[in-house]
């Protein structure tokens, strides 16, 4: 009589968490950090809940201890009950989800139906902040006119302390933060700026993000006044502006062309024809760097916001710029934080374009209805 031996092998359950983005050797607080949980084994299909906790190491009475960060839910882009944890990086302004030069512990756990609680943790340190020099960044002049005054930013004080820094320059406009260049090792920049808001005394904030090779960063903000042109000044001629834009584009100077357009659009106020013409001058341009995404979106927003009527050509031009920005972001995978920031501008640009497109469609439908009645 034949006999069979039945061997039951119990599969071992393994749970662990791992970092997949911004992992070090030192974590950069200004960037997102992504942690994922991993589970293998039979009971992994019976997970009922995930949970995450964040702890900071502090020194108290000559001893080290862990203190839980109780507002973790405000520092993440995911839920606490999620297989992954995404720390926001930059929260608001200069605030980050993590402090610099600090040791942290992230704990992840799962609850299994009818089974044990499994957990794991990782410990990491964030980069130390940059040493701020006595002389940082300055700008000259501190007051000028839109389209006539070139403002020069000088960060040579930083460069004297560390020659391996990179600088990213941007300004805060009505559309949000608009980046003027890619991060470069150049402590100087000269640029036109859009007109400031009258309600804010024509103030425009210039932002300089300074980075070292480790990823540590510092932000300097400089405020200038960019006033409207005097009434008798004819510098802002629409035809001349658009010809300058086209010349920049012919030379491949997309950022310069976009800056020219943004500065002009900030001055047109209620001149819708001028806005349409300048937007259409940029419509066929192509993005060569991610910094230009914020510029393209700013052009669309400034040309379409608060418009009651708009032409089909302008809608087509706005759509062309937004498609170019969208297609570029689809292929750009170097820095997810940059993509997220640029994506915020893109969403606002799309929202404005959809609104004016809907208004235009309603107008055309009404006109067709009136024609049929007649």
Explained architecture:
It contains seven helices and 17 strands. By secondary structure, the chain is an alpha+beta fold. Strands 11-17-16-13-14 form a five-stranded mixed beta sheet. A hairpin with a 2-residue loop joins strand 13 (166-173) and strand 14 (176-179). The longest helix has 38 residues, at 336-373. InterPro entries: PKD/REJ-like. It holds the Pfam family REJ. Keywords: Membrane, Repeat, Transmembrane, Transmembrane helix.
Q: Could you give the order of the helices and strands?
A: EEEEEEEEEEEEHEEEEEHHHHHH
Q: What is the general shape?
A: globular
Structural class: alpha+beta
Largest sheet: 5 strands, mixed
Sequence of strands across the biggest β-sheet: 11-17-16-13-14
Helix content: 25-40%
- How far apart the termini lie comes to 100 Å
Keywords: Membrane, Repeat, Transmembrane, Transmembrane helix
GO biological process, one term: calcium ion transport
Subcellular location: Membrane
Pfam family, one: REJ
